[in-house]
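ARCHIVE CARD
CATEGORY: sequence design from structure
SOURCE FIELD: tokenized fold
FIELD CONTENT:
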């Protein structure tokens, strides 16, 4: 019996050492790959795409270098999957740019580490959904411009491209990657990973504005200044955060004028003032 137990110790010990060896080997390979990416030059032909966006030109030289490094890391560590289209360098660079702009000044350990895939369609996609209204079920279809989960983002390229090169209130890339940031703390609830000392004020401001928007939207009233955010932002706190972030980068002057506290909270979180980027 003692011999049998000793044999088990050797077997499981051997398996443990094998697993540990595999882990270290994969970690080493990953680090080597990251080092290789960090040494890659950023192509001038790709920088041309960035110069066409309204948010790149006024970045400081330091921030331009930083975001270009982040774009290279993003592009070479995520799977870009085209559905009935060929994924181009332009698609990768522009999607990566806006994703990385959001976390440019946020202290993160990695570049969206949990994110694995970006799925790209050319046109809006029809999604089927079963609705339950008081026990009456109906099958409905609606079109999406983007979608996200903790490890996948779906982007409709035609609309995303137009929004990327023109300053607009809406930006589907920013919207979907805000959801990914929101999920970084394990929940998609409108509260991103934020310092505990800032949590109460963040919650007070965003919840207050969400509740006010929700009230007028539910009563089907004139939205007034909340028209800037739109009724869709009243869906839930996560959508409110994503839409508010779109407006923060897409129409910062209007957001600051109408929602000064909300603007301040977003500025504190992203550690960036978009008004200085679009002058």
């Amino acid at each position: 019996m003692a011999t049998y137990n000793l044999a088990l110790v050797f077997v499981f010990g051997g398996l443990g050492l094998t697993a540990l060896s595999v882990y270290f080997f994969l970690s080493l390979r990953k680090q080597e790959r990251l080092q290789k990416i960090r040494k890659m030059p950023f192509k001038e032909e790709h920088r041309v795409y960035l110069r066409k966006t309204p948010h790149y030109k006024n970045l400081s030289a330091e921030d331009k270098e930083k975001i270009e490094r982040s774009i290279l890391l993003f592009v070479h560590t995520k799977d870009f999957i085209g559905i009935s289209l060929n994924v181009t360098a332009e698609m990768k660079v522009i999607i990566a740019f806006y994703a990385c702009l959001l976390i440019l000044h946020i202290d993160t350990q990695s570049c969206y580490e949990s994110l694995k895939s970006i799925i790209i369609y050319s046109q809006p996609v029809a999604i089927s959904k079963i609705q339950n209204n008081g026990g009456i079920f109906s099958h409905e279809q609606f079109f999406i411009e983007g979608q996200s989960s903790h490890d996948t983002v779906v982007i409709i390229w035609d609309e995303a491209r137009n929004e990327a090169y023109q300053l607009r209130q809406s930006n589907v890339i920013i919207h979907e990657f805000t959801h990914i940031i929101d999920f970084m703390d394990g929940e998609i609830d409108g509260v991103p990973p934020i310092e505990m000392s800032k949590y109460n004020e963040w919650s007070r401001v965003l919840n207050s504005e969400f509740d006010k928007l929700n009230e007028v939207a539910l009563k089907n009233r004139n939205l007034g200044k909340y028209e800037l955010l739109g009724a869709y932002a009243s869906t839930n706190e996560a959508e409110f955060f994503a839409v508010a972030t779109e407006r923060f980068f897409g129409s910062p002057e209007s957001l600051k004028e109408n929602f000064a506290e909300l603007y301040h909270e977003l500025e504190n979180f992203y550690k960036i003032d978009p008004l200085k980027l679009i002058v």
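CARD ANNOTATION: Confidence is low (pLDDT under 50) at residues 22-26. The chain is about 55% helix and 15% strand.
SHELF: design records, drawer C
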